Amino acid sequence: MSQNPPDLRPDLARARVEGDAAARPDQPKIGMVSLGCPKALVDSERILTRLRAEGYAISPDYGDADSVIVNTCGFLDSAKAESLEAIGEALKENGKVIVTGCLGAEEDYIRGAHPSVLAVTGPHQYEQVLDAVHAAVPPAPDPFVDLLPASGVSLTPRHYSYLKISEGCNHKCKFCIIPDMRGKLQSRPVHAVLREAEKLVDAGVKELLVISQDTSAYGLDRRYDTHPWKDREVRSHITDLSRELGQLGAWVRLHYVYPYPHVRELIPLMADGGVLPYLDIPFQHAHPDVLKRMARPAAASRTLDEIAAWRAVCPDITLRSTFIVGYPGETEAEFQTLLDWLDEAQLDRVGCFQYENVAGARSNALPDHVAPDVKQDRWERFMEKAQAISAAKLDAKVGSRIEVIVDSVDGDGAVCRTKADAPEIDGNLFIDEGFEALTPGDIVSVTVDEASEYDLWGTL
């Protein structure tokens, strides 16, 4: 089984969830291990919010927990292996383990490796998870203490939060099994999303990260229905949603946006400052034949024109994307087309993965799989070019003055992000002088002094 570089995979395990500062004597305690992408993290937050409201405390240690929930990832075979390892560790250290998440859709696979797990549920099956917890550890709520937090339990720093607007996906990309695990597109009503976003901002959140499997398609399954919000009607459509989010006073960052034609309606919002000038678009490849074998919904031949049109309206826009090299049947000529396309597109943030077979994916049956050493060579060549582009773009920022948001501060300095950087996946800006008065969540103006391939350094 091929393994993608751990620092470039979307399924990295986070540390075990931090516990409550103090639990009551005899209060039931639940541990949580949350693996995978931000969408899974939101699921973990919702589960913990419900458990907290029912009187459970959250334990950061296996030994102190009465039971452990493992929220799994099943995006790649390497992610499945990591999930099985996490389940095994929880069983060894605690023994009473409940499994949920994407890999939970394959119960036989999990029980084949770990037959002693208490329960297995699929992604976003919150009620089934709660039922399993109740069976393993009966709740003992104190009605005078255990109240539902107004903003829920957050697993991210207080100053930013993920905002999930839909679940599932209607695409049938041959390398992906997410629609099999999470189902077809199910968009939340626009007023429900806006109400959650408003509560988050009222609670101190400074940055909203909009996530889904396909953000551009938001509302399609609802036929873009309208709902009353404040004194107006708002459509369940990504353009209307983004416009309303932009009025809440927080940074708004859009992830997983397919380059449909209506995406161009978002660019003026970015140029006007309502939404961050940042688009996370999973292009995956540039050669039309590879895209066809992938069954991708977008055509690269028009993508460069779209990018040029976006930059004409919003010159400061940051474009982030991910690509797959070594897809079955990929020839050297097709790979070279990808490199040439990257040269022309000049994307700001780029991630790259070596193709992996995933159980249940239709791409497994394609002919002419690429040899591992060829995939590795192409990955290295791709990343070399991407790093050179990133280094040149960041070097051009030296001497400029930009806004940054502070993520953390310690004795050595402040770790910040620019509007071009999403947490955990993009770069940072570091301040190592005069930072002592800064606190996480501050938005300050910085002069850029130095740049590397991915990060910046600056002074207040």
UniProtKB/TrEMBL annotation:
Residues bound to [4Fe-4S] cluster 2: 169, 173, 176
Positions of transmembrane segments: none
Binding site for [4Fe-4S] cluster 1: 37, 73, 102
Compartments where located: Cytoplasm
InterPro entries with a match to the protein in the record: Elp3/MiaA/NifB-like_rSAM, Methylthiotransferase, Methylthiotransferase_N, Methylthiotransferase_N_sf, NA-bd_OB-fold, Ribosomal_uS12_MeSTrfase_RimO, rSAM, rSAM_horseshoe
MTTase N-terminal domain segment(s): 28-138
Primary location group: cytoplasm
A GO CC term assigned to this protein in UniProt: ribosome
Catalytic reaction annotation: L-aspartate(89)-[ribosomal protein uS12]-hydrogen + (sulfur carrier)-SH + AH2 + 2 S-adenosyl-L-methionine = 3-methylsulfanyl-L-aspartate(89)-[ribosomal protein uS12]-hydrogen + (sulfur carrier)-H + 5'-deoxyadenosine + L-methionine + A + S-adenosyl-L-homocysteine + 2 H(+)
Function: Catalyzes the methylthiolation of an aspartic acid residue of ribosomal protein uS12.
PANTHER family (UniProt xref): RIBOSOMAL PROTEIN S12 METHYLTHIOTRANSFERASE RIMO, RIBOSOMAL PROTEIN US12 METHYLTHIOTRANSFERASE RIMO
Xref: NCBIfam families: 30S ribosomal protein S12 methylthiotransferase RimO, MiaB/RimO family radical SAM methylthiotransferase
UniProt name for this protein: Ribosomal protein uS12 methylthiotransferase RimO
